[in-house]
Amino acid sequence: MTLSWVQIVRLGLVQMALGAIVVLTTSTLNRLMVVELALPAVLPGLLVALHYGIQITRPQWGYKSDTGGRRTRWIIGGMAILALGGLSAAYGVYLMEANFTLGLIVSILAYAAIGVGVGASGTSLLALLATATAERRRPAAATITWLMMIFGIAMTAGVSGQFLDPYTPFRLMQVVATVTGAAFLITCLAVWGIEGKVTARREPDSAPFLEGLKEVWAEPKARRFTLFVFLSMTAYFMQELILEPYSGLVFNYTPGQSTSLSGAQNGGVFLGMVVVGIAGTALRFGTLRSWVIAGCIGSAASLGLITALGQIGPTAPLLPAVILMGFFNGMFAVAAIGSMMALAGEGRHAREGTRMGLWGAAQAIAAGFGGLAGAALVDVMRTIMSDPSAFGSVFLFEAMLYIASAFMAVRVMDRRPAIHIRRAPEPAAIPGE
């Protein structure tokens, strides 16, 4: 028995709760440290990088959910750690006003806990979706869960922002405690009883973690897909830290206009995800593989357009080009997640969580690496060329990464993923044969 639409939406609530907590730590607390506490921007940047770096443990969390026989406890336990980490991160900011050293120590521990919580809860959730979602519903399932995460991020940022004014440390703790407590409660209610009603697991596999990870890495398709995830997600995040400065330096956007530009890009991402969900499931048009390739090529073309507009200057229509890029980014991202779900059950049996963890770790590392690499390359290029050319050269490099990702997708992904997964007695056996 596979997940129903209602059950998929319920699991999407977990993604929404996860996004709600994470956005407070990467956005609200980031602003408070830089503006209200007048700390260097590199400090919150390093804390966020820590939370991404900790997620290199995702394969082990996926393995634990594979061998434990039940994924629900890892989802709930991970969310508990994430909620505690989010609340502790806010307390760290509160402490910094009186004792910076103590506040920094608390913050480091808190962001480490956030990385652990996201890894444990998020990886186990995706593994559950991958093993219990019917193949024909995977594009929509990926769309639903990611759209709900985006909704959780947007809603939390908007609502908590209203309650934070006028800002006081005590009000901050109240808001964060409310969000983290609600997120944990929603997670418990959302996942309760689902796993027992679907065919999501075979018998637990008690093989050691390193043995399981080696078996997964020995699978050519899993190994190539890991490299594809890292390459494509590096491209995806490379413009994250430079798009708004580009709009200001080259197009004379005000800070408010740059913020609106970022919002418009996310609107394009949302639309791209919806299109893949509707076309891939309701209309049965295209495959995950074709949507990933189209998203990569479209993203590359959009970056080329954004680069060309920079040569024109402030009068060029940057906004539509950024929305177009967001559209193809969303198309690629949600199809890639759907592909993870489709590929997670291929290869050695009882390794779905380990595969999702491996790919989640690749994505997390790429997120941190891509953003920092984009910013560093721009800094270097601006010393030897004009701003439009400096930013444009990085955008074109990013476009090349997308093209390379499209070629990798052609080789890594099946045209039609197997629907049924046959138990394989040997590690080398391929399901569906």
Summarize the structure.
The protein is mainly alpha-helical and 433 residues long. 78% of the residues lie in helices and 0% in strands.
How would you characterize the overall build of this protein?
It is a single chain. This protein has helices at residues 5-36, 42-54, 58-68, 72-96, 100-132, 138-164, 169-191, 209-218, 220-238, 243-251, 255-282, 288-312, 318-344, 352-382, 387-412. It is globular, with a radius of gyration of 21 Å. The chain is mainly alpha-helical and 433 residues long. It has 15 helices and no strands. The model is unreliable at 417-433 (pLDDT under 50). The protein folds into two domains: 1-206, Growth Hormone, Chain: A (Up-down Bundle), CATH 1.20.1250.20; 208-433, MFS general substrate transporter like domains (Growth Hormone, Chain: A), CATH 1.20.1250. The two termini are 21 Å apart. The protein is 78% helix and 0% strand.
Order of helices and strands: HHHHHHHHHHHHHHH
Question: How many E strands?
Answer: 0
Approximately how much beta-strand content do the residues carry?
A: under 5%
The structure class reads: mainly alpha
Quaternary state of this entry equals single chain
What percent of the residues sit in helical stretches (DSSP H or I)? over 70%
Query: Span from first to last CA?
Result: 21 Å
Named CATH topology of the largest domain: Growth Hormone, Chain: A
What are the defining features of this structure?
single chain; 433 residues; mainly alpha; Growth Hormone, Chain: A; 2 domains; 15 helices; globular
